[in-house]
Design goal:
Layout: H1 17-50, H2 58-84, H3 94-111, H4 117-142, H5 150-155, H6 160-184, E1 200-201, E2 204-205, H7 206-231, H8 245-258, H9 263-293, H10 301-307, H11 315-336
Antiparallel strand pairs: 1-2
Helix pairs in contact: 1-3, 1-4, 2-3, 2-6, 2-11, 3-4, 3-6, 4-6, 6-7, 7-8, 7-11, 8-9, 8-11, 9-11
Length: about 325
């Protein structure tokens, strides 16, 4: 989810003036939307407490959990990288605020997955903040010395981190949409059961839409890992894992999104997603080991966590694998119905 830039990289000496001008506007929008949402939260909570909407069950809880996990990755990543940049642009605070709120509403969705206007507002804010961040980072890359070069991709502003924030918002919005559809149907059946009136997202069957979203997210995360591990010359053979296992899961999910998968392909997808999910804790352990091998080890944690392997990056694989598993469960539930 990030590119490590050395402290003496001259391209990080300053932020382009246009970005500094727009940054405060982005931060103001995020703060404003968050404030308005907070004012609405009390009324929304009272409305839900007195309503009779049924619980949509495990499916939406898992999606909220995945959204919260992605937001946690973005929060940790942005805090480290933007602290490195001394928050020169006020807009650099925006992803921290948006991701922190996304964590809170994601956790609240796990406890009470009934539809919430406040959660939907926060998730949509995360989508917009991630899109704005992607624009800022792309602008940064294009205005580095030499333009868009391998050096810029290796050490410039990462494209994966803001994209992950938008993914977090999309997953959370999908959870809210499924909750609303379940509530509208009276809760007589669990999500994904039966062929009639199956839940839909963006006009597509929910299972296929989520499979496509998870496929794109896993492929993008794996591509970023490939770039950074290529920069590290794959000096550790285990660095091949995040560029070999997740693409298999991404392909299987893409296949499930485009056409009805067979029983064999579903089993392959489950195995690939389980392996992708395991990369989260395994990757964190390996990256922590990499930090310990730097000069001073964990005694010099403030410097080595910034310049060493990114600790918040691997858990994104686990979060996206969970979305993929939810998608497969919806597809299988619809097929059984």
């Amino acid at each position: 989810m990030r590119r490590r830039s050395p402290a003496n990289d001259p391209a990080h000496a300053g932020t382009p003036a246009p970005a500094r001008a727009v940054g405060p506007l982005v931060l103001a929008i995020v703060v404003g939307r968050s404030f308005v949402g907070a004012l609405r939260a009390g009324a929304a909570s009272r409305s839900l407490a007195t309503g009779s909407s049924p619980s949509p069950g495990r499916t939406t809880r898992q999606l909220h959990a995945a959204a919260a996990a992605l937001a946690g990755c973005v929060l940790a990543d942005s805090a480290i990288e933007h602290d490195r940049g001394s928050f020169r642009n006020p807009g650099m605070y925006a992803p921290l605020l948006a991701s922190a709120l996304a964590i809170l509403v994601g956790l609240s969705g796990i406890g009470d997955p009934r539809p919430s206007p406040y959660r939907r507002l926060v998730y949509r804010t995360a989508i917009g903040t991630g899109a704005a961040g992607l624009g800022f980072h792309l602008f940064n890359l294009l205005h580095r010395p030499g333009g868009l070069t391998w050096q810029s991709l290796f050490y410039g502003a990462p494209l994966g981190a803001p994209a992950a924030l938008s993914l977090c918002g999309l997953v959370g919005t999908a959870a809210e949409s499924l909750s609303s559809q379940c509530a509208g149907q009276g809760g007589g059946r669990r999500i994904g059961q039966g062929t009639g009136n199956q839940p839909r997202l963006a006009g597509l069957l929910a299972g296929r839409a989520l499979a496509g979203l998870a496929s794109v997210g896993i492929a993008g995360t794996s591509a970023e890992a490939a770039l950074l591990h290529f920069r590290g010359a794959f000096h550790n053979p285990l660095m091949v894992l995040p560029v070999s296992l997740p693409p298999v899961a991404a392909v299987q999910l893409a296949y499930a999104a485009l056409r009805a998968p067979s029983e064999g392909s579903l089993k392959t997808a489950h195995v690939a997603l389980a392996a992708t999910a395991a990369l989260g804790p395994v990757g964190v352990a390996l990256h922590a080991y990499g930090v310990s091998r730097a000069m001073g080890g964990w005694r010099n944690w403030r410097q080595n966590v910034i310049d060493g392997p990114p600790l918040p990056a691997p858990p994104a694989f686990s979060a996206l694998a969970l979305v993929g598993l939810v998608a497969l469960a919806l597809i299988e539930g619809g097929a059984r119905g």
